[in-house]
Amino acid sequence: METVYDIIKITVPALIVFLTAWILMRSMIKNDQDKRKQELILQNSRTVIPIKLQAYERVILFLERISLESLLLRVSSPDMTAGQLHSALLTTIRSEFEHNLSQQIYMSPQAWEIVRNARSNMIRIINSEAEDMKAAAPGLDLSKKLLEKIMELQTEPTRAAIDYIKAEVGRMI
C-alpha cells in the first residue's frame, strides 16, 4: 500500500506540472500564431491598399474621360456627321471601358456596378439624342443636343459615380 501511495505522491505532482506546461505551451503557440496572422494581414494591407487606390484612380480617370464634355472635346471634329460622331463616341466609351475592366477586381461590387451604370447611362443618352437626328446632319448639332441634355440633368451619370467612388475611398482610408 505504501508503494501505491508513493507512486501517487510522485505521479500527481508530475501530472500537475505536465498539465501546467502543456497549457502554457499551447497558449504561447496560439499567441504566436495570432501574432503572425496579424503581421501577415498588416503586410498584405500594405501591399493591397496602394493597388486598390490605384484602381480607384484609374476608374475615376475613366469616368472623367467618358463624361460628355471630355468626350466631345477629344472625339469630335468639325467635318464629322452626326452618324460618325455617334459611332465615334460609342466606340471611345466601349474601348475605354474595356481598357479598365480589370479594375473591378480591386473595387467593391457596389462601386463597380455604379461605374457600369454610369457607362450605360452615358451610352443611353448618346443613343437617345442621336436617334432623333439624321445620320448626315452635322456632328456639331449632335454635340449641342448632347450638351443640352446633360445640362438638363441634375447630375451627370459620371459625376454621380465619381462622387460615390470618392466617398468609398474616403471610407477605405
Share of residues in helices = over 70%
Q: Which structural class do you get from the secondary structure elements?
A: mainly alpha
Distance between the termini: 72 Å
How much of the residues is beta strand, in percent? under 5%
Number of strands: 0
Spatial shape: rod-shaped
Low-confidence stretches: none
Topology as a string of helices (H) and strands (E): HHHHHH
Count structural domains.
1
Please state the CA-atom Rg, rounded to the nearest Å. 32 Å
Oligomer: single chain
Tally of DSSP helical segments: 6
What's the pLDDT, averaged over the residues? 93
Q: Can you tag this structure with a few keywords?
A:
173 residues, mainly alpha, 83% helix, 0% strand, rod-shaped
How is the topology of this model organized?
Layout (H helix, E strand, L loop, with lengths): L1 H64 L2 H8 L6 H18 L9 H23 L7 H14 L4 H16 L1
Helix pairs in contact: 1-6, 3-4, 3-5, 4-5, 4-6
